[in-house]
């Protein structure tokens, strides 16, 4: 017996994959531009002395005009940092996905491109190949492959990969010199977040808020430009892949906990909520990782709760725990692990409500 | 009372049928289909070759022999097609074109017992359905409520108001009779836009539904009006054209053996409403109506209809539309578009990705993803607790339509419902 529906919506995993890549496009452009720009700034500041990495020697050292760079210089300098990281991530992820698809006799999951891309954008320009291969391998096995692939794991593989690198090599992501991609360069103009030495609110005034919003600051490659992230968010929400409830929930969480911290006052506690939004990798992770439909809450109530918890936890860890200055990755990881519990509670309330309406 | 449904989705597929009802289109063969009666084991009463009049019983329910299924035309029973485990697929009746029908004695006083007996004899009882499970209700049970559904939000469905206004008196009479069936509360569910004219002296409470597609489904109405608990509660429902048939029988002593359906869809030349005999053969209905002879013809809507093919090529008992769509080879058997990445591996189901559009088209009050997950893993108790007792296949059609995994949730739900029925899980210990 054949029964309906005889027509299907155009919604499919392929469509979700394409839209997610499309949403990452503005971030990729911003990442390329800003990574190149920061690298050239550092190079100019350093007088070209630091350009002794193998990449620089191989490709650029004579050709690049760091004193007065043109657009092409910026793009090329961006790409020489972004592409190797991406290539290594894609290769590692591809190998593991291939092994699993062969051994488990299932189709090769092209979603690994997205995972590799997310991971790349959460890496500093100076990330080393060993870190990348290690993080991706761990994540592709324990947060992807053993669960059966896309949509079946309860943790986002890119998130796990970054978390593993951060935990295993604490200096790999927060070490300042890595941030410009210029080997050994220490003259970083840092966001206050990573200094933890804020007094009377002056340190972050070194930057304008708009600098952080447009993304002309140093940081992990894809996470500096909040504007590009917002463009991506628009694509994801319009394509009904990300839940707007999750995003608004995170905003609430940040505002509420930042307001409480501001009341207590002192040091980094003084940082207002609108600075929290544009600093570190929060905006990027909030839009691209927290809203991953297969690892986020599957009920609308749960999405509000998960969003609020994520935003609240990010600010909370930032202001009370100096060893996690960015705090986005640990916060997301914690909330991701809580998501099944959140859903469980929402389901419990739904069942209870069904029972009660008959009495 | 007015109920507004915020969620849902109205699909557009082909042009809206014209609202004038064309004259009856006769059918050479009619059939009663086994798939229209889940939960009933059908036993053939009139064997092949038996001449029957319209209204004469041809089938009964083996476990509840008082429930009869009657022939919609006069003619000869020509074939009883059986499938696996000798389950009846269809009983085919070839019409002789005379239109003889049985006359039923209408008692002077229509009390509860008389109405029930009359409905059972005339086969009209078999048009009633009960939730949970969507089976034909057992006579003598006392349901919590009876819903008369005079709203249809399926894509390209006929407008009930047009049909009810044509058969005004019969509808009023049928509704009045149902009110006398002794059921605690009777609801008449209609669309906000529909201006129904009927004798409103009966005690049926009129409820207006407003909103997009699931607004017209029984699952939605039950959720808003009379939720089903775990105490073996039942809600019965009957559809407006069957009510017209009942009224017709009370006033003329023979049931109405026609149904007004919409013939529509992209592959139909002239989408319109037509009268056809109950269970009419699809070939007779679509004769000369299709743009493309190889079009796929569906009894019912594109969302929750059935393919009319082979031994089942007849209008379903509860279907009020025939939809014809173009057959395309651009989709795989599971309905997902063929692309570079999945070519040839179409049998493997994708994972359920809980995007937000699932919640947007879920039946009201249902947590879509937890319920679908319970269905996928066959967790009967979780599905029951999450409200599966209020649903049948048609309520999940929009979810199957939307879900990126292209899973059909209707058959999964049916399996679980039958399991719950067998294990007596509608009551909690």
Labels describing this entry:
heterodimer, A: 359 residues, mainly alpha, 61% helix, 0% strand, B: 429 residues, alpha/beta, Ubiquitin-like (UB roll), six-stranded mixed sheet, 19 strands, 23% helix
Q: What features would you describe in this structure?
A:
The complex is a heterodimer of chains A (359) and B (429). Chain A has one domain (13-349). In chain A, 61% of the residues lie in helices and 0% in strands. Chain A has helices at residues 13-46, 54-60, 71-103, 112-121, 129-142, 157-168, 170-174, 209-214, 226-238, 244-264, 273-278, 282-288, 300-320, 328-356. Residues 196-203 of chain A have low confidence and may be disordered. The two termini of chain B are 35 Å apart. Chain B has helices spanning 112-122, 160-166, 168-179, 218-225, 240-252, 282-286, 356-361, 368-377, 380-385, 397-402, 409-423, and strands at 2-5, 18-22, 29-33, 42-44, 51-52, 57-61, 68-70, 75-82, 88-95, 129-131, 145-150, 185-191, 205-211, 235-239, 258-264, 272-277, 296-299, 306-307, 321-325. Chain B is built from eleven helices and 19 strands. In chain B, helix 3 (168-179) crosses helix 5. The chains are: A mainly alpha (359), B alpha/beta (429). At the A-B interface, helix 1 and helix 14 of A face strand 18, helix 7, helix 8 and helix 10 of B.
Uncertain segments of chain A are 196-203
Q: Per DSSP, what share of the residues of chain B sits in E-state strands of 2 or more residues?
A: 15-25%
Number of domains of chain A: 1
User: Uncertain runs of chain B with pLDDT below 50, 5 residues or more?
Assistant: 329-347
């Amino acid at each position: 017996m054949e029964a309906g529906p005889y027509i299907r919506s155009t919604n499919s995993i392929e469509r979700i994959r394409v839209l997610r890549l499309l949403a990452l496009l503005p971030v990729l452009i911003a990442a390329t531009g800003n990574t190149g720009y920061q690298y050239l700034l550092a190079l100019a500041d350093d007088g070209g002395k630091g350009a002794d990495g193998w990449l620089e020697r191989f490709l650029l050292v004579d050709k690049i005009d760091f004193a007065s760079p043109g657009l092409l210089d910026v793009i090329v300098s961006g790409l020489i940092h972004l592409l190797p990281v991406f290539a290594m991530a894609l290769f590692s992820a591809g190998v593991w996905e291939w092994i699993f698809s062969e051994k488990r006799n299932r189709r090769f999951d092209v979603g690994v491109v997205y995972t590799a891309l997310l991971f790349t954008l959460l890496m500093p320009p100076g990330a080393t190949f060993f870190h990348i291969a290690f993080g991706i391998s761990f994540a592709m096995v324990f947060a992807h492959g053993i669960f059966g692939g896309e949509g079946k794991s309860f943790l986002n593989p890119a998130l796990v990969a970054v978390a593993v690198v951060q935990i295993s090599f604490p200096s790999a992501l927060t070490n300042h010199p890595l941030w410009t991609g210029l080997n050994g360069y220490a003259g970083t103009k840092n966001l206050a977040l990573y200094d933890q030495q804020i007094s009377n609110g002056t340190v972050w005034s070194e930057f304008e808020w708009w600098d952080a919003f447009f993304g002309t600051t140093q940081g992990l490659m894809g996470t500096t430009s909040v504007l590009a992230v917002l463009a991506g968010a628009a694509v994801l929400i319009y394509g009904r892949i990300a839940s707007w409830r999750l995003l608004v929930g995170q905003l609430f969480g940040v505002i509420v906990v930042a307001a409480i911290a501001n009341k207590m006052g002192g040091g980094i506690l003084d940082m207002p909520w609108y600075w929290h939004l544009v600093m570190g990798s929060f905006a990027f992770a909030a839009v691209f990782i927290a809203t991953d439909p297969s690892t986020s809450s599957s009920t609308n109530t749960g999405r509000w709760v998960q969003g609020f918890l994520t935003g609240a936890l990010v600010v909370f860890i930032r202001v009370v725990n100096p060893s996690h200055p960015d705090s986005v990755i640990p916060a997301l990881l914690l909330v991701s692990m809580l998501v099944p519990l959140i859903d469980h509670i929402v389901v419990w309330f739904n069942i209870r409500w069904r029972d009660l309406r008959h009495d | 009372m007015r109920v507004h449904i915020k969620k849902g989705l109205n699909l557009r597929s082909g042009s809206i049928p014209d609202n004038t009802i064309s004259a009856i289109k006769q059918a050479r063969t009619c059939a009663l289909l086994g798939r229209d009666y889940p939960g009933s084991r059908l036993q053939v009463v009139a064997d092949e070759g038996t001449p029957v009049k319209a209204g004469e019983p041809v089938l009964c329910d083996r476990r509840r022999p008082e429930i009869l299924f009657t022939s919609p035309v006069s003619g000869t029973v020509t074939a009883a097609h059986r499938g696996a485990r000798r389950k009846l697929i269809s009983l085919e009746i070839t019409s002789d074109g005379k239109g003889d029908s049985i006359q039923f004695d209408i008692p002077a006083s229509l009390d509860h017992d008389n109405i029930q007996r009359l409905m059972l004899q005339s086969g009209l009882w078999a048009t009633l359905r009960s939730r949970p499970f969507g089976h034909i209700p057992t006579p003598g049970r006392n349901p919590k409520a009876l819903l008369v559904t005079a709203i249809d939000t399926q894509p390209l469905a006929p407008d009930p108001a047009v049909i009810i206004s044509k058969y005004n008196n019969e509808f009023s009479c049928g509704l009045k009779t149902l009110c006398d069936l002794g059921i605690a509360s009777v609801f008449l569910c209609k669309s906000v836009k529909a201006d129904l004219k009927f004798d409103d002296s009966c005690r049926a409470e009129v409820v207006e539904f407003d909103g997009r597609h699931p607004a017209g489904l029984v699952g939605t109405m039950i959720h808003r009006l009379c939720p089903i608990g775990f105490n073996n509660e039942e809600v019965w429902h009957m559809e407006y054209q069957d009510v017209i048939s009942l009224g017709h029988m009370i006033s003329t002593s023979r049931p109405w053996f026609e149904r007004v359906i919409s013939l529509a869809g992209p592959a139909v030349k002239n989408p319109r409403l037509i009268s056809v005999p109950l269970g009419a053969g699809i070939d007779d209905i679509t004769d000369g109506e299709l743009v493309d002879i190889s079009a796929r013809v569906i009894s019912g809507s594109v969302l929750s209809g059935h393919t009319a093919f082979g031994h089942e090529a007849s209008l379903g008992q509860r279907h009020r539309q025939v939809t014809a769509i173009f057959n395309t080879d651009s989709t795989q058997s599971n309905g997902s578009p063929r692309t570079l990445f999945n070519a040839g591996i179409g049998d493997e189901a994708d994972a359920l990705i809980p995007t937000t559009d699932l919640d947007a088209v879920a039946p009201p009050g249902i947590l879509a993803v937890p319920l679908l997950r319970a269905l996928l893993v066959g967790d009967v108790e979780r599905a029951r607790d999450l409200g599966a007792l209020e649903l049948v296949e048609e309520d999940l059609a929009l979810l199957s339509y939307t879900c990126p995994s292209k899973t059909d949730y209707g058959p999964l739900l049916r399996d679980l419902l039958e399991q719950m029925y067998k294990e007596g899980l509608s009551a909690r210990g």
